[in-house]
Amino acid sequence: MRKLIPAIIGSVLLATPALAADNPRGEAELDRAIAGRVAGEPVNCISLRGSTSSQIIDGTAIVYRIGSTLYVNRPRSGAESLDRDDTMINRFFGDSRLCNTDAVRTVDLHSGFMTGVVLLGDFVPYRRPRY
């Protein structure tokens, strides 16, 4: 039985990103948010010092606006708990950077109850093309 538990947990964690990709409504909303932009090379961390906003795309991703660049984060785990009616709680140690090794808690704006934990993935920058 003890050997079975890690196998079950591992299979659940591996299935989680697939669940997030099966959200057509969230994918459509994300497509609208990044329309007209071109993806760049993913980065491990972003600094939130110049961030002007963040947007939760239900069950799909988090979009951070830093200057004119949108950074899209598709969580490694927990994306299914992302809800636009939640707020994100970040803990910073030292500087105000978010990295793909960080976990973000989500809290319902109305009740104040914790709704989930999201394990961040890489941050993909989307910029408007220069002509």
Secondary-structure map:
Blueprint: H1 4-21, H2 24-33, E1 38-39, E2 45-47, E3 51-57, E4 61-66, E5 69-73, E6 86-89, E7 97-99, E8 103-108, E9 114-119, E10 123-127
Antiparallel strand pairs: 1-10, 2-7, 3-4, 4-5, 5-10, 6-8, 8-9
Structure description:
The chain has one domain (4-127). It is built from two helices and ten strands. It has helices spanning 4-21, 24-33; strands at residues 38-39, 45-47, 51-57, 61-66, 69-73, 86-89, 97-99, 103-108, 114-119, 123-127. The radius of gyration is 16 Å and the shape is globular. The relative contact order is 0.22. Residues 1-20 have low confidence and may be disordered.
Sum up the structure in keywords:
single chain; 131 residues; alpha+beta; three-stranded antiparallel β-sheet; 2 helices; 21% helix; globular; disordered N terminus
Task: Please summarize what this structure is.
Helix content is about 20%, strand content about 35%. The chain is of the alpha+beta class. Residues about 1-20 have low confidence and may be disordered.
Which overall shape is indicated by the principal axes computed on the Cα atoms?
A: globular
Q: Count the strands? A: 10
Task: List unreliable stretches of 5+ residues.
Answer: 1-20
Biggest beta-sheet profile: 5 strands, antiparallel
One letter per element, helices H and strands E, the order comes to HHEEEEEEEEEE
State mean pLDDT (0 to 100 scale).
Answer: 85
β-strand percent reads 35-45%
Strand order of the largest sheet: 1-10-5-4-3
- How many structural units, i.e. domains? 1
**What's the end-to-end separation, in Å?**
61 Å
- Give helix % range: 10-25%
Our count of helices gives 2
What would you call the structural class?
alpha+beta
Radius of gyration: 16 Å
